[in-house]
C-alpha cells in the first residue's frame, strides 16, 4: 500500500505532527466517522445495565440477569471474529449494517420476552442474537490504522482517544440506562439503546472515504499465530472478568443500599477515571509504561472498592474508590491493544482486534455470571473480591507467559 504524506491527506500546514488530538481531527472525514461511531458505541454501555435491571425487576433474580447477559456476551465472543473476518473481506459498510440489524432485532426480542413474561429460556435465546453486533471500536481503530499507518506516534494518540471514547460511553451509558429504566419503565433503556445503535452505525458506515479497502483473499496467517498473541488473548479474558464482575456487583451493592437508580452514576465514575487517564496517556506517551506495570497497577487499585465496601458500607465512599480504580483501565487497554495491532497482519486487522475482544467478552461473561452468583449467595460487599482476583489473574497470566517486546514498548 503506498504511503500517504501529511500533505496528501490535506492536513492543514499549521498543524505539526506532534499536535496530538488536534492533528487527528484535521484528517478529512475523521470527525464524521467519529461522530457516528460514538453514537453507535454509546449503547454498548447501556445494554448490560439495561438488561440486568430489566430482568431483575421482572424476575427478581440477579443470578438470572447475570447469566442471561453472560450468555449474550459469550455468544458475541464466538461470533465476533467471524463477523470481523467478513468485514476484512467485504468492507465495513457491507457487513456492519446487516449485522447490526440482526443485533437490534435480538434486543427487541429480549424486551418483548421480558415484557410479556415469556419462559426463561427465551431470554437466553433472544439475548444471544445480539452477538451479531460488530466490534464498533475495532471498526474505528481500523480506520485510524488505515489513515495513520506511517505515523506510529499519531496512531498511539488515536488508540488512546478510542480507549477514552470507550470509557466515555461506558461512563454515560450506564447513567442513561439507569435514568431511563428508573424514570420511565424497565424496558426503556434497551429500547433506546437499540435505536441509538442502528442510527449510529448507519451514520458511521455512510462515511465511505475513510473506510479501509476490503481484501478478499488474505495470505497472512491467523492473527493468533503472531508472537505473544495467545498470552494476550488469555490476559484480555482475565481483564474482561474484572469489568463484568464489577458491573453486576456494583448494581447489586447499590440495590442493597436502597439506591438502585444510583448504580449507573456509580459505575460512571469508574469509567470517568479511565477516560481521563486515557486522554492524558495519549497526550504524554510516557516512557517506560509496560503492560506488566499497567496490570500490576490495576490489580492494586481494584482492592480499593473491595475495602471500601467491606469496611465502610458507604455508597459515596465506594464511588470515590471506583473513580480512582478506573484510572488504571485505559492505559492497560491502550498498551495491550497497541501490541495487538503491531502483531496482526494489516489485511486481518479487524479479525485480530476482534479476537482480543472475544477474549475480553468471554471474561466479561464469566465475570458477570460469577459476580451475580457471589452477590446473591454471599453478599455484594464480599463479591467485590471477584474483580480483585480477576485482576491478579491477568497479571499472573501475563507475567508467566514471559515478556512480549516491541520497538517502543516492553510488555
From TrEMBL:
What the entry lists under SUPFAM superfamilies is as follows: MFS general substrate transporter
**Example of a GO MF term:** transmembrane transporter activity
Is Electron transport included in the keywords of this UniProt record?
Answer: no
Q: Which UniProt keywords apply?
A: Membrane, Transmembrane, Transmembrane helix
Q: Which domain of life is it from?
A: Bacteria
Report if keyword Transmembrane is assigned.
Answer: yes
Q: Name one Pfam family in it.
A: MFS_1
Chain ranges passing through the membrane = 38-57, 64-83, 95-114, 231-254, 260-282, 294-311, 317-340, 352-375, 381-401
Q: Which InterPro entries does this UniProt record tie to the protein? A: MFS (IPR011701), MFS_trans_sf (IPR036259)
Q: Can you name this protein? A: Transporter
